[in-house]
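ARCHIVE CARD
Drawer: 12
Card no.: 0347
Subject: one protein chain, sequence and derived structure
Cross-reference: see card 0346
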Amino acid sequence: MPKLKSKSGAKKRFRTTATGKMRSNFAFKRHNLRKRSQKMKRKARGSRIMAPEDARIVKSYLPYA
């Protein structure tokens, strides 16, 4: 059986943790930050663990992750 291709956009945006969960960055942090509250900007630092329903979809984009 041939190798499966990964979605190249997903390769750049998501990565897997050691326990198999999907990690992603927060949205809404690129521009228009003056509108956002300081609390929102502080909570959006770093990365987050995706919800299981969303992670299942992303894992289909990364067959060997």
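Annotation on reverse: Strands lie at 15-16, 22-25, 47-49. The longest strand covers residues 22-25.
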